[in-house]
Write a structure and sequence with these properties.
Layout (H helix, E strand, L loop, with lengths): L2 E4 L2 H8 L3 H17 L8 E3 L5 E7 L2 E10 L3 E10 L6 H16 L1
Parallel strand pairs: 1-5
Antiparallel strand pairs: 2-3, 3-4, 4-5
């Protein structure tokens, strides 16, 4: 079993603020990650870069993404989440997650 944590309280509120359908999809995928591990593969999760992964959530309201990293002792850290409005993941959204991961790595 894996444990899921948030980078900080703001990230937890960000995820809680996603539209209900997207949030439900994200929570369902997170439940699978707890049970089966963080690398579920497409279409649920995908490796991005620099040790970051994304949760690929879908709801009637659209598409959402939550970036995460893994650390030892079977821990998953949610770094950032957002509602996706374009076909391609905006670079600045990924850069937020990468920057936060680097901060976690430096600790």
């Amino acid at each position: 079993m894996w444990d899921i944590f948030y980078y900080n309280r703001k990230v937890e509120k960000e995820l809680d603020g996603l539209p209900v359908g997207i949030r439900a999809s994200c929570r369902r995928i997170m439940g699978l990650m707890i049970e089966y591990g963080p690398e579920l593969g497409m279409p649920l999760t995908r490796y991005m870069e620099d040790g970051t992964w994304e949760i690929r959530a879908h709801g009637k309201e659209g598409i959402g993404r939550a970036f995460y990293m893994t650390v030892k002792n079977k821990r998953i850290i949610i770094l950032h989440s957002f509602v996706k409005k374009t076909q391609k993941t905006p670079r600045h959204e990924l850069e937020i997650a990468i920057r936060r991961k680097k901060e976690m790595d430096d600790e």
